[in-house]
């Protein structure tokens, strides 16, 4: 009986030992791993540091400028875009323009004809001749009135008719000038049924909205001309970025088709108002003439902000984790602490650190190796 009692007791002791050993080992392992990530500190052996290529250094003072990335379109000043129309309607008689054609200021764009042009010239010449008669009659009545040979009423009537005719002649002359006819050169021998439309500026034809034989009205736009001599870039900037801009700042821009070709420009004007979409317009002048750029072309641009001496570290020193930025400071030999930081501008391989760093060295190379070690230790724990 004694042997039967001793054997079960031994089994119970053995089973108890088997169940307790893994738990104790797990607790020890958890404690070790928790120590590795406690207080955001990770520790490596000298061999691990050497194999990972981890190096340390100190933050530096760097002259850096931050950039604002924006977009916009190439444009020309409003006075360099002209819509050509005719104040008096008529039938298009001659025209040979096509979009893209270059024209010079004063050149003939088209010819219109209509009977109202004849009527206007006739009215002017008739009014001008009557003015001569009324002027002579006025002078005659004035002399007679001075000698009291005629009544004041007759003189006043002659004076009123003379003045009214001068107004009529003047207004008809302005109407003639409006359609390009010189009233001083007009006489009964050169009355014309047609008038010419002249280019108001030098530039390129961008739109042709008419064809020969079509009747055009004063509200119709016949052609559109653009002068490319003063191209500028209009950028759309969000209100949060606009406060950092000032006239004279330099920008670098490029087109989508040729991103490797850079163009330099300077901010010329900043619209002092914010629109409904929370943006404002910034007008920039190119530093050099660019004949290969066209109005309406979409461009990307980077606006350089003012240089400043800032605290900076190599870009490799900063790691991103859970949408926040960190770097590692050297706590002791082979021990590194994860520290949150606020970053700023990036330039030439360095990144600005706006927050205050603890005294001592930081990890400047292969910081992500430490982050992976810390994350893996935390997940395993």
From TrEMBL:
Pfam families: Beta-barrel_RND_2 (PF25954), BSH_CzcB (PF25973). The keyword Transport applies. It comes from the Bacteria. GO terms for biological process: copper ion export; plasma membrane copper ion transport. Residues 81-225 form the CzcB-like barrel-sandwich hybrid domain. InterPro entries: Beta-barrel_RND_2 (IPR058792), BSH_CzcB-like (IPR058647), MFP_Cation_Efflux (IPR051909), RND_pump_MFP (IPR006143). One of its GO terms (cellular component) is cell envelope. PROSITE patterns: PROKAR_LIPOPROTEIN. Belongs to the membrane fusion protein (MFP) (TC 8.A.1) family. This is Efflux RND transporter periplasmic adaptor subunit. It comes from Deminuibacter soli. The lineage of its organism: Bacteria, Pseudomonadati, Bacteroidota, Chitinophagia, Chitinophagales.
